[in-house]
Amino acid sequence: MLPVSPRAGRLLVLVAVFVSAACGLVYELELVAIASYLIGNSVTQASVVLSVMVFAMGVGSLLAKHLRCRAAAAFGAVEAALALVGGCSALVLYAGFVWGASTRLLLVVFSLAIGVLIGAEVPLLMTLIQRIRRQDAGGAVADLFAADYVGALVGGLAFPFLLLPLLGQLTGALLTGAVNAIAGGTLVLWLFRHDLSARARRRLLAVNLAVLVLLATLAAGVGDFERAARYAVYGADVRVALQTDVQEIVLTGGAHRPATDLDLYVNGRLRVSGRDEHRYHEALVHPAMRGPHARVLILGGGDGLAAREVLRHPGVDRVDVVAPDEELADLARTDPALSALNGHAYDDPRLQAVHADAFQWLREERTGGASRPYDVVIADLPDPGVTESAKLYSREFFGLAARALAPAGRLAVHAGATAEPRAFWTVDASVRAARLRTVPYSAERRSARAGAGRARAPRDWGFLLAARTPPELGLDARPGRRSLTPAMLRDGARAIERTRVPGLPPSTLVRPRYGEAATPGG
Hints:
There is one protein chain. By secondary structure, this protein is of the alpha/beta class. The protein has two domains: 6-226, Growth Hormone, Chain: A (Up-down Bundle); 276-497, 3-Layer(aba) Sandwich (Rossmann fold), CATH 3.40.50. The protein is built from 15 helices and eleven strands. The strands form two sheets. Strands 7-6-5-8-9-11-10 form a seven-stranded mixed β-sheet. It has a four-stranded antiparallel β-sheet with strand order 1-2-3-4, covered by helices on one side. The protein is elongated.
């Protein structure tokens, strides 16, 4: 006996299908997002999560066949378990990453568990909707899958546009779990309450309340958990921690000490170390500035450190910095330690900041050749092995950068760590495929610190100096560099040449050829 009419009951079941599908897709996207952040190489992580979950959904559907005789109770138990496992998945993965558990193993375990539970939903819901009103199997399947697919659409859009920017990965997953538990528990405990004994109803109610209390408690403690995790990963001197629309930014040190004690981490990886960043930025910038340099374009470099080195040269009229993260630029402008480290570059009227994807900006700006060319283009980008950066190390990208150059212009490229020679020489092949001539060289770094959960920094940085005619590797006579000398450049060129891997094809947009990078660049 239903408390509502069959038509209303059928509608309520379809609403439950809709909510379950939306929550299920949020769990799936959450696993992909946090695994990509923690492990890197988003293509691999997405492939692992999707393939394991689809397989597990098939297993869950088979197992649910044996539960159809008690479909209401089974569905209530499945939804409570899914709310608990899915809601806690991001938090447990992050905790495992920070405190030494195998993140990849946890990822597979959660993908399997969530997939099995999602797969069990549809057979049980099919049984429940048929109990309300008998209809042909084809019509029932069409109704269920229509609600399922619409729910997946809503969940897929809600994750990047609502949950992630407003709540973050951890709180967003916990809230999704709570919605999942409420929807499943309400459907069973109200609409199908007569299918359960009084004892079963009390048990299911207690389980759902316990799940909701646990999820709420964890949500209340997310702030403290994140702080403890940051201290475990970065040490106790974390000053700034931002989750922007583009990336996570963490600043440590530099508050009451010299700016050289500052470290900048992006997505958990060391991008800037105040102790030796001058070695990286001097090696990246100064060889390219030997020659005309009135107009300079910096792709990336939102921290302002490459711009600092550019602005040291007389004769610079304009510097355009194209970087995607506006909040990093604001931090570089306003944080006392970081702005001191970059020489207050953002206060220089010659610098113009553009917050855009470098690839898109180059393509739009250079279409039709309306923009004036640049004497120097500096690609201050993450390592090519980071999946999200692969397009910025493609033949097409370097072709766009070449179009932005004046006839005698030079292109400087951070091409990854010398410890990854295949990646480095693939960058070289990609630049040469854009009809530029290259001179490779490297620079040694001092600090290679790493804490728990942090990738160790490379021993050396690799660079390319490129132009339409064979460029000459050297430096101008102007003082102001802290460490870089012509002899160091020559030594770096000889050292990188010993790692050459011949015959590598260029990387393209449709066929990226970079593996997973061990570390980021500057």
